[in-house]
Amino acid sequence: MAPSTDKALLFRWTTFVPLLALVALVLTWGRDVPGWVVAVAGALLAGAVLAAVHHAETVAHRVGEPFGSLVLALAVTVIEVALIVTLMADGGDKTASLARDTVFAAVMITCNGIFGMSLLVGSLRGGVARFNPEGTGAALATVTTLAGLSLLLPTFTTSSPGPKFTSGQLIFAAVASAMLYGLFVTTQTVRHRESFIPVTSDGEVVEEEDHVPPTEREAWTSLGLLGVALVSVVGLAKVVSPTIESGVAKAGLPHAVVGVVIALLVLLPESIAAYRAALRDRVQTSLNLALGSAMASIGLTIPAVAIASIWLDGPLLLGLGATHMVLLALTVVVGILTVVPGKATPLQGGVHLSLLAAYIVLAINP
């Protein structure tokens, strides 16, 4: 990528679309808007998603893997957590299960949707999708532990009625989640970085792309625009959510479907980035995005809501119901069987996608 002038950068669609989306967010936030405004907001949301993917890939190309996938996963999750806490502050008792529902939706979408799509695309392209089982297995183990501590245990504890933790238990879960996430990031980026580097279909480790990386100035500019795009994506998803809620209600669907739709919107940047990486025979990058996003979603959300619960009114429900526990157990078992060989065929990708389909179907028809 050759250096570009400030003027050329200014007139790129990837520059002005996120800025337009941010302006639209400022003008529509907290207001009742007509249908045509919602349509415009939806179009800008889609444009901001594509721009976010572009800028994330620019940053990733500059810093290399696994730092690049970490940037996008962390940025999306930080803004997602901020949105959850904001909604909980405004919603009262009716948002008691919001954190749980959002985190579980993110886990299912990333660990089955993005994970399965990456394996399917990578294997269809090269016959067999290859990845590093050491790094991917470590990530899956961390996601499993975080999900178990934060989403399963509250269902079975007896100190407090209902699927929730006591204050002491919540503090433990928050500290454990933050420490595990920090330990994994250190492992991924410092001590065992080689375990998260992409592997080609021939089994060779790939360190860098074969073209000129962007300049430092372009990378910093893309990092700033990535933040703007992600704020716009999450904010506009909140703006269009009343329209989504109205449509879901008119269709006679459960309210949980709204959370699934919004989670899909928020995770679009990572989904597209993972798809593009798999097309380039960099399946490990795609899996880093999938599992890293699931891990960040739990590891950052639980500590955030634990702190927010100090001033938030109402209960904080974290424990999953029986149906979702079965889906989580299937996801973990299938994930282990997929990761251990270090390679996958289209079958494994299809199995994971079928679990995501089951989650969506049961959200529509519990």
What descriptors fit this protein?
two-stranded antiparallel sheet; Ionic transporter y4hA; 2 strands; A middle domain of Talin 1; potassium:proton antiporter activity; mainly alpha; disordered N terminus; 366 residues; 75% helix; NaCa_Exmemb; transmembrane helix
In short:
The protein has 366 residues and is mostly helical. It has one domain: NCX, central ion-binding region (A middle domain of Talin 1), CATH 1.20.1420.30. Helix content is 75%, strand content 1%.
Roughly what fraction of the amino acids lie in strands?
under 5%
Number of helices: 13
Strands, total number = 2
CATH topology: A middle domain of Talin 1
The major pleated sheet works out as: 2 strands, antiparallel
User: Can you name the CATH architecture?
Assistant: Up-down Bundle
How far apart the termini lie comes to 49 Å
Give the CATH superfamily: NCX, central ion-binding region
Share of helical residues: over 70%
The radius of gyration over CA amounts to 20 Å
Structure description:
Keywords: Membrane, Transmembrane, Transmembrane helix. It is a multi-pass membrane protein. This is Ionic transporter y4hA. It holds the Pfam family Na_Ca_ex. The structure is a single chain. The chain is mostly helical. The chain has a single domain (11-364), classed as A middle domain of Talin 1, CATH 1.20.1420.30. 75% of the residues lie in helices and 1% in strands. It has 13 helices and two strands. The chain has helices at residues 6-10, 13-28, 35-63, 67-91, 98-126, 133-156, 167-191, 216-250, 256-266, 268-279, 283-308, 322-339, 346-364; strands at residues 129-130, 343-344. Helix 3 (35-63) packs antiparallel against helix 8 and helix 5 packs antiparallel against helix 11 (283-308). It starts with 5 loop residues before the first helix and ends with a helix.
